[in-house]
Automatic annotation (TrEMBL):
<feature type="domain" description="TraG P-loop">
    <location>
        <begin position="394"/>
        <end position="806"/>
    </location>
</feature>
<dbReference type="InterPro" id="IPR043964">
    <property type="entry name" value="P-loop_TraG"/>
</dbReference>
<dbReference type="InterPro" id="IPR027417">
    <property type="entry name" value="P-loop_NTPase"/>
</dbReference>
<dbReference type="InterPro" id="IPR053155">
    <property type="entry name" value="F-pilin_assembly_TraC"/>
</dbReference>
<protein>
    <submittedName>
        <fullName>Type IV secretory pathway VirB4 component</fullName>
    </submittedName>
</protein>
<dbReference type="Pfam" id="PF19044">
    <property type="entry name" value="P-loop_TraG"/>
</dbReference>
Amino acid sequence: MIVDTAEAYSILGFIGGAALSKCGGISLCYYLINPEPYSLSQQAIEYRQTEFERALRFMPSGSYFHKQDVYLKKAYDAHAELLGDTFLQKEERSHFDGREYLEHHCVLSFTLAGLESLEPAYMKNPLAYQDNLVERDKARLAEFIEAVEGVVIILKNLPNTTIRRLEEGEIVQFVDRYVNGFAADNGKRDLYFGPHMTIGEARASVFAVCDETALPDELPVYIEDDTLPKANATLFMACLEKLGLHLRANHIINQIIYFEGNNKLKAELEARADQFHKHRHFKKELEITAARLQEMQVEVIESQAHLCRAHFSIILWDTDEKQLTKAKDAVKEALKMRDFGHYQPSYIGLRNIFLGTVIGRENILDRDFFFLTELSIATGLFVNHSPYVSDIDGVFFNDRIFQIPYKLDIWDEQKKRIPARNSLFIASTGGGKSSTVLNIVEQEIRQGVKVVAVEFGKSFLAVSRLYPSISAHIDYDGVTPLGINPFYIESKEELTTDKIKTLAVLVLKFWREKVIVEDTKQYISVVKIIRDYYNSDPVRPSFPDFYLYVKNNIDEILTRQEIPPNYFTVTSFLHICSEFMPGGLYENVCRTDGTNADLIRGKDFIVFELTRIKKDPFLVSIIMTIIYETVENKILADRSIRGKIYFDEYAETATMKDNFSGEDVHSTVAFFFQKLRKENGGISAVIQSPAQLPDNNLTDGVIANTQIIYVLPTTETVYSDICTTFKITNPAHIQLMKSIRNDFVAPRPYAEVFIRFQDLYATVVRLEFSRAKFYAYQTDGKDWQRISDDFKETGSMEAAITNIINSRSHEKIML
């Protein structure tokens, strides 16, 4: 039989935002967004089901609750999502464009049927329909609306759940698309119901659970989630969750609960139990059903369960017969694994189930397609997850199901999840921490964030070569000039009080005579002399020029600044600081030759590569002071500019200590964690385990001022250290963290990262790279060496990456 979509379409009109159906019912419709996948613990699933049951318990007799989950196959439009014209952006666009994923829509419809005076009242005067209702219908409608409002209040309070009222236009569009099979062109289709169902050119199949005997003997609230490869933890999901996002097909899950009246249904249950008990000896199936009904009757009495009628069905459709068959097999397998029976309708049954699951037409669904059950069992069939949703702003990662790019806001300017943005990356050697950090940094510098990176390796070199015009890579070896001039200013406006203080600290570090460094009189004298130096309008300020200025003008300076001679020990200053002058041991720290007077001025991405000086703690402490001055100028000076500083392989340097001053790197970094938390900036450090950090109050400060942690697959010992250090007690967060694993041999190789925003939010993202990004983020090995050698020849990182891609086009990348 053929039904045109005009007949299937259910809406007669609207009254007060509620849909009036052709079947005489009135429907209030809402849009629901569920928690993201893998985010619910056993307790959270149980709580969610209990709250749905509590919310629906007071729905009035004659009303329907319809939860409709629609999953539509879509092709990822990278040209609309991955914007930009850089080399990596173009490659990423090409890599992900067209990837299949599921779009999900969850609509909740509350329908009240049997208002006999509703349609005549509406037809008489739509604007004053309530005045023309009979008193009985007025009372029923008021009770219904009040009950629905109560349900919505409860659902709004569910964690990580959003519910909103659908507008009239949204309801019209949704119902129209539903009866037309959600055709991409939004055109009209005829519906054919025969041995199978067709919607235009698409063929459809329906599976229904509509009889008590189709239910399993036991219906657990949650089951073990087996949709991910085995890891160090067990995740959980609702009983039929695999029919949601994990079913890679066009499909609709319809779950309808009819509230016929609790007492009425209890009486019916008692009568049915007695009838089956009397005839139980005639047939084995009757004996089984009789036992089940008696068991249910006892349970209802003891638990004061709320009875209802429920319907569960899933509609599959596709224009490709092979894809439809594959989806049908997946549904059969999922139901079989949970011991559900099913019914596949045809002809009249198929027509009734499809039309009866159109929003607003639930009351025409034949009673034979409902099963008598407890409300808790009906809600136990709900699916609980919606897809990952991109934040408005943020950094692109990949979701955990379809591996399509989505944005996660790790800056959080609105402070929805975190009050600041300091972070720690925790990963074992070879766990993918470099690629994780580089994925973030590369996007941040494109978004205009000023980034300063401090490393003891070559992790950031490739990114700086990809963006040479905005990058400065400072690889100090003690031989070539450092290329940083803290004394350099372009105008007097840059000579702030903070700038003078920083320069004074730097001079005292160069001086490194403990008695002088700890003498307040000497410190104030240094500040005054620095100010005097800039008052002389030096042509190109630098420390060597400052040193010579003091050497040649000390008497005049002391007189001009009213500094007693014993308050500034000039001979000590000139003798010790001569090490930073030409011919001195540290001459290249401050030497300028006109071409490298200040390599970092005007740069947005600055990398300090300190590998070759890490054996000299004093020199490292000097560079750290210069880095602090850089951060002051690049990040803290202008609060309108976003800035971040990264410390790679931080645990390797945290314990570095200058034997003379007693200062260590850890104290400087701890200060950054405290300082940047209050500014428009952030600091990130990369470690292998929290246990690597010194056990002292500085580390306590770092932990207390860390808002985000990124965890890559590691050992149980490290997971335990993380939970202890950050006081993580949320079981969902702990299990989620331990569930991560990398799969570098999958058809689409990926790494996984657990990201936690303090106590409020945690998720797992995947990293899947295009070939270009994969090679760009190499930090060692043969590929890295080949790219580096090629870069030296071509002078172009893009060309070097393109060359290795072309030579390895037949090979599969292994993250």
